[in-house]
Amino acid sequence: MDPTHPPALVIGVDVSALNVIRSLGGHGIEVYTMGRDTSDYGAASRYAKFVLCDDLTDEKKVISKLLEISRNLGRKMVLFCTSDLHVLHVSRNREVLKPFFEFVLPDHEVIETLMDKKNFNDFANRYGFSVPQTFFSKNSTDFQKVASSLPYPCVIKPLYRTIFWSLCVPPEKKVMKADSPQDLRQKLSDLRALDIPLIFQEWIPG
């Protein structure tokens, strides 16, 4: 490892994280990766030292583990996020993390607009960008109101991609397609996903 470079910490161990780990490790940079699955891609990489965090969706646990890693190492680290959720975690806690990590982020207001799909949809419509018709539901009550207004076929995806969604929907698909109100209700009922924040968009062929 090149001691002239600060060590890097990559949040996540999926295939996106693995690409970052390999790029950094291939340049002689000491890399740590944080995740919950010891069998996932990044956790097994020869370029990184794996650190367990039992829930990467829990903001308090993620920030606490980041601080613990940096303090134990005794050096300021360069921080890499590999998911939207972790960018939000880091941005919300940037002042706490700054003494221990180097990272580059725009203002939090910009991040909230870009990362929060509802905020981004409102922004796009406000400034006349061409985007698919988009609807949101927070729970089953919202869903009842939204379902009858949706264009079909439609695409269903979570507001934030979580471990739950990844386990239920194959990573190569990321989203589901519903051809009718009955098909939509059946798929979400089968997934037990009616009470999680969801996005519904018109299907654009091509």
Describe the structure.
- This protein is an alpha/beta fold and 206 residues long.
- Helices cover 40% and strands 18% of the residues.
- The protein has helices spanning 15-25, 59-73, 84-92, 94-97, 108-115, 117-126, 140-147, 163-168, 181-191, and strands at residues 8-11, 31-35, 48-52, 77-81, 101-102, 134-137, 154-158, 176-178, 198-202.
- The strands form 2 sheets. It has a 5-stranded parallel sheet, with helices on both faces. It has a 4-stranded antiparallel sheet with strand order 6-9-7-8.
- α1 links the parallel β1 (8-11) and β2.
- α3 (84-92) runs antiparallel to α5 and α5 crosses α6 (117-126).
- The model has no long low-confidence stretch (mean pLDDT 90).
Helix fraction, binned, reads: 25-40%
Low-pLDDT stretches are none
Strand content: 15-25%
* Strand segment count: 9
Strand order of the largest sheet: 3-2-1-4-5
- The helix-and-strand class reads alpha/beta
How many helix segments? 9
Mean pLDDT: 90
Distance between the termini: 46 Å
